[in-house]
TrEMBL record:
One of its GO terms (molecular function) is 3'-5'-DNA exonuclease activity. The gene is LOC111358693. It comes from Spodoptera litura. The keyword Nuclease applies. One of its GO terms (biological process) is DNA catabolic process. This is Three prime repair exonuclease 2-like.
Length: 212
């Protein structure tokens, strides 16, 4: 697999945010696309412009075919390979999105990759040998770390160059934090993301939460 050329950070907001298996009511989602080149520019911490982001709200808590087309077109216009990355995505975001798409009988292109940033940040910051792309717990096969890996906690620890005060949980805020953390990790993040053992394809995602 060629190196990832576009990282698409993804976050979803639901009415119940603790269990992907029981959460079907989507409030909003955000995708933020960041080109690989920006990771080769350590001082370029500026978030990509609006053309590299989509934010969608769902008054009826459902994704329509038109919504899917917007998402799919956005993903397809990015330079490939594309990897969608979400924090705790394997347990939450990816399964919910997959379930919504299955109900519409649609899917993303077969070459679209996904990876979990909780795994990435843990493996990099704990200097751990990288585990599997899907794990029962993000720290496996190592002991549970002393530091927590909630997104905002990682952001405050890692982003020291012009950090922005930001409220966690709104999807556009969470995708921005994912960008800033990954950019601060720089080449270490690229090395992690380019490892094929860390990736899987969106078409492999199971609709009912994590599958080991």
């Amino acid at each position: 697999m060629a190196p990832v050329q576009t990282f698409v950070f993804f976050d979803i907001a639901t009415k119940r945010e603790d269990n992907a298996d029981n959460c079907d009511e989507i409030k909003a989602l955000c995708f933020l696309a960041v080109p690989r080149q920006q990771y080769l520019e350590p001082n370029n911490i500026r978030a990509p412009n609006d053309g590299n982001q989509i934010y969608m709200e769902f008054p009826n808590n459902e994704i329509t075919v038109e919504d899917f087309n917007t998402i799919n077109n956005f993903i397809n216009q990015q330079e490939k390979p594309v990897c969608i990355m979400a924090h705790n995505g394997n347990r939450f975001d990816f399964g919910i999105l997959k379930r919504k798409f299955n109900r519409l009988n649609v899917d993303l292109a077969s070459d679209v990759l996904v990876a979990d940033t909780m795994y990435a940040f843990h493996d990099i910051l704990e200097n751990r040998a990288q585990g599997n792309a899907v794990r029962r717990f993000y720290w496996e096969p190592h002991p549970q770390p002393a530091n927590g890996y909630k997104l905002h906690d990682v952001y405050t620890r890692v982003v020291t160059n012009n950090p922005v005060e930001i409220e966690p949980h709104p999807p556009q805020n969470d995708t921005y934090m994912l960008f800033r953390i990954s950019h601060a990790l720089g080449q270490r993040f690229l090395n992690w993301a380019d490892n094929p053992n860390r990736q899987r394809r969106f078409v492999q995602v199971q609709p009912n939460g994590i599958q080991i």
